[in-house]
Amino acid sequence: MKYEEAMRELETIVRKMENDELDIDTLSEQLKRAQQLIKMCKDKLTKTDEEIKKNLESK
pLDDT digits over 33-49, tens only? Predict the structure, then answer.
């Protein structure tokens, strides 16, 4: 999954939470999904940051 796709899905989950569109069972599932998406996004950002630093150091 691409970073942008994960962010869009996270935004959708947040919007549904803010608008009280989720029942308690769905809310639990969506919170777990949001945690997965946040971790994935953080990992991608960290990896990209490391790659940029490595490229800058080699120049």
Answer: 999 999 999 999 999 99
